[in-house]
């Protein structure tokens, strides 16, 4: 027969108030053996007779096993579990002995012995009981032998978890993780309705298994943890139950008892945030440091460190892998069966995006299975690899091992000279990427330049020449970053970067020009007109500024026509007036254009052709 615990939710809620009193006591210095102290403000006193082990204490709702001896103030004993050598198990918060004692036990540690003195209102009150007179002060000597932590998993009494054995400090698993669980489920009468035996069963948390309660409980467990679950029907098999050919069926509205152990689990990480590149960790790596962006991957047995350009911030890494289709067909091997390992620079498009992104998250000696959807793999094209052909739109798998890597030297680890040199090098890399149409990657390079520049002078040493170089690098990379943003239609970022330049160089023609382009991209035509006007005043003969001014006038004309058309549609009864208004808008626009062109032709300054939006190099 299975014994089911009855959980009183009201008791659990009231227990929270009791925990506050316990916290007040624990904030005081620990008791010394033989020392007595009042707990809380209700007259409960505790005298420490023997120290306990560790620092953990039970909580309200837990099931504790104790020996206790009760006596009156004259020393007469009215109850003792030691006399029968049968410990007593009680649920804290229910007052199974007396409610005041529960507030004392929550301050105890495993193996501790304490003497509690309870006033009548916390003991047997004005009525007393057999052998205990009314309004009696009683003393209870308690030894805390052990306890089982009890958790209300869903906070509604539907799944009560008793922790029989604490697990390791690994876990709990997440929704994507693969777990191996050993469990046995029984009905109230002890009938076994499910049993995985000792070997357990593997499944992914997100896929569910057996019943909702099992998965919900596992998500609260650590590796090696053993529990007993009391599951109400709404988290089991509800109103319909479950039929089975091999084991007894589960009747409708059945309460279940499930003993479970989380044997192991493999973390599955969503690398890209859209579940299209997932990494299942088959073997954890060393430490906490992962390979980061800008790392070169190679073999630990090769003299690869010389390939690391420390001044540019490159990083050397190492992987070997086996690449497969979903049916198990191997199409590539690196570093396996005599093959050389792969050496590459992450984020340099030297391998498929999915593998690049996954490798960057790995630790030394980590071994993982990476699943890559076509969007991050070879796409919709057929690709011939070393050992097989990858069909179009294939999901591919990589068993990858990170053998070694040397992390990128961070800006704060460099001297000023190294920071400036690294920034200049990365700027040139960014310029080359821009010329090759790699705008996203170029923007990242410019960001790294700015990060390095921000640390120049952090150590307090900055010469005048260094300050000039840093300012030039910042302005250059803001400009180039703005050009990348324009190419990527990220107009907001382009405006932000150009505004930074104009904060330090208010008449920078390129910044005005590119910010005007961005304003036009978001239809902020008035702001664009102001920037073009300032740029034209600074350099009236610049051809690019004249061209963008012409484009702006065309956009303004189109905007005016749309406004007139909208006005006509909103007020059809006054269509004649609307037509006249449109003509007036057209006439006013033509007059403004003539005045603007005349003003520009009267200027006499010149601007470098470099303001063109087709180049990022400054």
TrEMBL record:
Record has Repeat as a keyword: yes
Span of domain PPIase FKBP-type: 61-148, 176-266, 314-406
Matching InterPro entries: FKBP4/5/8-like, PPIase_dom_sf, PPIase_FKBP_dom, TPR-like_helical_dom_sf, TPR_rpt
Signal peptide residue numbers: none
UniProt-annotated stretches for the region Disordered: 1-32, 576-618
Gene3D superfamilies: 3.10.50.40, Tetratricopeptide repeat domain
Catalytic activity from the UniProt record: [protein]-peptidylproline (omega=180) = [protein]-peptidylproline (omega=0)
Family: Belongs to the FKBP-type PPIase family.
Protein name: peptidylprolyl isomerase
Organism expressing this protein natively: Sesamum indicum (Oriental sesame)
Organism placement in taxonomy: Eukaryota, Viridiplantae, Streptophyta, Embryophyta, Tracheophyta
Gene: LOC105159091
């Amino acid at each position: 027969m299975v014994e089911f615990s009855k959980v009183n939710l009201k008791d659990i809620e009231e227990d929270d108030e009791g925990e506050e009193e316990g916290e007040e006591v624990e904030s005081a210095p620990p008791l010394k053996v033989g020392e007595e102290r009042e707990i809380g403000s209700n007259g409960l006193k505790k005298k420490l007779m023997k120290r306990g082990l560790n620092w953990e204490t039970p909580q309200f709702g837990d099931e504790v096993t104790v020996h206790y001896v009760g006596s009156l103030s004259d020393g007469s004993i009215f109850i003792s579990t030691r006399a029968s050598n049968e410990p007593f198990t009680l649920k804290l918060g229910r007052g199974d002995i007396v409610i005041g004692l529960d507030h004392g036990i929550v301050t105890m540690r495993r193996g501790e012995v304490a003497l509690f003195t309870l006033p009548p209102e916390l003991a047997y009150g004005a009525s007393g009981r057999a052998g205990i007179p009314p309004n009696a002060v009683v003393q209870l000597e308690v030894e805390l032998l052990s306890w089982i932590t009890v958790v209300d998993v869903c906070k509604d009494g539907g799944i009560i978890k008793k922790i029989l054995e604490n697990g390791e400090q690994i876990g709990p698993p997440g929704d994507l993780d693969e777990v191996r669980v050993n469990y046995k489920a029984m009905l109230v009468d002890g009938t076994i309705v499910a049993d995985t035996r000792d070997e357990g069963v593997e499944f992914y948390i997100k896929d569910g298994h057996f019943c909702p309660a099992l998965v919900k409980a596992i998500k609260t467990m650590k590796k090696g943890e053993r529990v007993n679950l009391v599951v109400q029907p709404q988290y089991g098999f509800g109103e319909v139950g479950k039929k089975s050919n091999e084991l007894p069926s589960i009747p409708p509205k059945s309460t279940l008892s499930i003993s479970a152990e989380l044997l192991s689990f493999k973390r599955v990480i969503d690398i890209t945030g859209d579940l299209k590149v997932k990494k299942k960790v088959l073997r954890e790596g060393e430490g906490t440091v992962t390979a980061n962006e800008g790392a070169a991957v190679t073999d630990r047995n090769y003299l690869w460190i010389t390939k690391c350009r420390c001044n540019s911030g490159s990083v050397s890494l190492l992987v070997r892998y086996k690449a497969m289709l979903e049916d198990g067909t191997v199409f590539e091997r690196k570093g396996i069966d005599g093959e050389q390992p792969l050496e590459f620079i992450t984020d340099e498009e030297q391998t498929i995006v999915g593998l690049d992104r996954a490798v960057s998250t790995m630790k030394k000696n980590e071994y993982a299975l990476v699943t890559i959807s076509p969007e991050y793999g070879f796409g919709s094209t057929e690709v011939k690899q070393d050992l097989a052909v990858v069909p179009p739109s294939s999901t591919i798998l990589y068993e990858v091992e990170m053998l070694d890597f040397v992390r990128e030297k961070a800006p704060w680890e460099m001297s000023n000279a190294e920071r400036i040199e690294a920034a200049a090098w990365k700027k040139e890399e960014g310029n080359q990427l821009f010329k090759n149409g790699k705008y996203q990657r170029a923007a990242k390079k410019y960001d790294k330049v700015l990060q390095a520049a921000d640390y120049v002078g952090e150590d307090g040493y900055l010469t005048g020449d260094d300050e000039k170089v840093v300012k030039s690098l910042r302005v250059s990379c803001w400009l180039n970053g703005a050009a990348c943003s324009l190419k990527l239609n990220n107009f907001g970022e382009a405006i932000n970067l150009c505004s930074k330049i104009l904060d330090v160089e208010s008449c920078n023609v390129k910044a005005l020009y590119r910010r005007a382009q961005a304003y036009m991209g978001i239809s902020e035509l008035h702001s664009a007109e102001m920037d073009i006007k300032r740029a034209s005043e600074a350099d009236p003969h610049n051809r690019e500024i004249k061209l963008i001014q012409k484009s702006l006038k065309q956009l303004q004309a189109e905007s005016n026509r749309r406004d007139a058309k909208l006005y006509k549609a909103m007020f059809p009864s006054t269509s004649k007036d609307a037509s006249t208004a449109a003509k007036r808008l057209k006439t006013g626009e033509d007059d403004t254009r003539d005045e603007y062109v005349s003003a520009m032709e009267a200027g006499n300054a010149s601007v470098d052709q470099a303001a063109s939006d087709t180049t990022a190099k400054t």
